[in-house]
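Working notes for the structural subgroup meeting. M.R. asked for a predicted model of this chain before we commit to crystallization trials. I am recording the input and output together here so anyone reviewing the notebook later can reproduce the run.

Input as submitted:
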Amino acid sequence: GNEENRTTWSENSVRDILRSPMYAGNLTGYKRPAVSMKSKKRPSRLPEEWETVQGTHEGIVSQDDFDTVQELITGRRGKGQSGYDNIFSGIIKCADCGYHLSAGSANRRKRPDILDCVVYWCGNYTRYGNLTCSSHSLEARDLHNAVLADINHFADMALRDPKALKAIQQKLSAVSTGEVKALERERRKLAKRLGELDRLFAALYEDRVNDSITERNYVSLSAKYEKEQSEGDARLREIDVELAAKGHADRGAEDFLALIKGYSGITELTAPVLNALIDRITVSERYCNAEGALEQKITIYYKFVGSLHEHYIAVPKRITHMEEKRCSRCNEMYLPQSNISQYCPDCHLAMRKIYAARANEVRKAKRGSLGLVPRPCGCCGKVFEPKAHNARFCPACFPEARAQAAKQWSKDNYQKKKRLT
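Returned structure, recorded in token form:
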């Protein structure tokens, strides 16, 4: 039995292999650093806190494949007791604290679709309470509808709008096509001028060696050329960064449109679709807009392009799905607001008054059984109903009587201490 188990791969071994950056050609360290030189404790650190050196050796798998596997492992999901398949696991995050949003029950009964019974909460809030973050609650139905509509919008744009590529490229990059041409012209001029400055430096040095120019003029011209050369080098680096960002944005827009056009007309979201198109989704807290209605902002970050625009979801008032039932008092049919409702709205108000009168009678009877009969106030002489056996003053006179008693106690205590000393 033991000899056969020696060749069996355990789940922990496979998980460690899939998570190890070593197989992608990277060297990692500080996974379990010591707390101090006097302690033997070596707590494990999160993979994000490891010290990683890229490209130390030839990897068995590529870095892209390794990153894809990490995303799939992080986004693993399972059906809970309610049977809801959390397809947004590992994708949806809190916009304020960065924690993942967890799915939970919305505490609604008799909803025909499980999607209407689920709400997302900030993981930081559910674990530590409102001291660290707010709830950021979001209905699963609202999230599903917003993401599905946004994917179909960009998929239809990629198929039917010939100017979609240019529109997305301009949105991603602050540099337009005309500005790119101007930057390229400026770059050519700068490169030409820097070449001329190199030649001027060489000629200036020769003139100084041959004593064709004085020391003063040599220092003055040298400082002038050096300043112009440093400014030109800095501007040239800025232009290169802007042009590289523009090229990266253009390629990202092309890859995004080529990817999303294959999902045109989808009617249902699945985990493979979300993992292929979306990098992450951030959810902000609810707020009241200028019209007094509740809104909530979500931002979808797509692969290759990031966020293209923001969504503002109107938060509707959810009503529990209930069937009509008969009132226990008037025997009329009505639509209940909860599963324990027994009376229609009119009878509900009447029954509240009846129950309040009964409770008041019970309180009076209880006071009478305890000997709490009405008595005159020791201050004003008015008759009142006491709430305790030792009550001597009515509620109106009680604060003043308590203050006088406290003052008298302080005076007596002072006299007692004075006699003892």
